Amino acid sequence: MIRLWLSLTLLCLATAPVFAQPAANGNDLDALRSRLSTDWLLVRNDRLHRIKTYARLEDGKRYRSFKVEATLDVRMEPLARVMLDFENYTRWFWKTLESRLLRKESATEYYVYMIHDAPYGLPDRDTILKAVIEPQTKNHPYVLLRTTAVPDMLPPKPPLVRVVSEEISVRFMPLPNQQVQLEVEGYFDPGGVIPPWAANLVQRTAPYAVVLAMQQRTDLPEYRQGTSPLPFPVYDYDEQP
User: Fold this and answer.
1) For 148-158, what is the mean pLDDT?
2) In the record, which residues are listed under signal peptide (predicted)?
3) What 3-state DSSP class applies to 110?
4) How far is residue 234's CA from residue 39's CA, in Å, rounded to a whole number?
């Protein structure tokens, strides 16, 4: 859920946001925070790529939550292949320096270790995620992926700071014309001491960048034309069981 597929410059040029693009200063971030409540606030609306991102405040949590809604031009199978290719998350997932599968419990349960490049002047973060997948069924036409941080699964690795909380749900719903409706909702706490502006800037930028990169990644031949069997079945709109 990378070194970015695209540079941040391209990301900024490609978007059509609701308000100005965030800068690394307090004024823009203060303006955004002043708008936030416990209701979802539209942060970015990229009409070209059909991606919307939202933010809201959560009671009892240090940072805001995020949500992404997007329509992707992709079939379910290559999308599943990208999501399960844990070793190559470094090629597309947000600021990821290392990614590897720790353990596969079953066809639908995985433990993954990742190291993320933190903003300048802050120690990098590592995270251990438990990923559980609910495959499609006749009465459940979407794939649901839930990831949860399990920070105590491995000993700390200083100078890395362990992400203490990460709760993300991702839903992939097939649409007509070989498209997928994507809905992501989540929250993370990077742990340690981090300025609120840095955490909020990442939360504002990362969800959009990850979805855009995911779409780009699914266009590669190894995912579009993959032939190795998937650990669970996926179905497009016109193939529902």
Assistant:
1) 97
2) 1-20
3) strand
4) 33
Cα gap 208→94, rounded to integer Å? 10
Tokens of 61: 């949590």
Write the CB contacts of 32 (distance below 8 Å, at least 6 apart in sequence): 19, 22, 43, 55, 200, 204
Which sign does the torsion angle of CA 54, 176, 212, 134 carry?
positive
Q: For residue 11, what pLDDT band results from cuts at 50, 70 and 90?
A: very low
Q: Omega of the bond prior to 159 within 30 degrees of 0, cis?
A: yes
CA distance 188 to 168: 8
| Secondary structure of 164-231 in HEC code, one letter for each residue | CEEEEEEEEEEECCCEEEEEEEEEEECCCCCCHHHHHHHHHHHHHHHHHHHHHHHCCHHHHCCCCCCC
Please write the tens of the pLDDT for every residue from 164-215. 999 999 999 999 999 999 999 999 888 888 887 777 777 778 899 999 999 9
Question: Amino acid identity of 61?
Answer: K
Q: Residue 3 contacts by C-beta under 8 Å, 6 or more apart in sequence?
A: 90, 91, 95, 96, 117
Domain ranges of the chain: 8-239
Q: Which fold would CATH assign to domain 8-239?
A: Alpha-D-Glucose-1,6-Bisphosphate; Chain A, domain 4 (3.30.530)
Name the pTM for this structure. Answer: 0.83
Contact between residue 231 and residue 107 where contact means Cβ atoms under 8 Å apart: yes
Q: What is the pLDDT of residue 15?
A: 28
At position 228, the amino acid (one-letter code) is: S
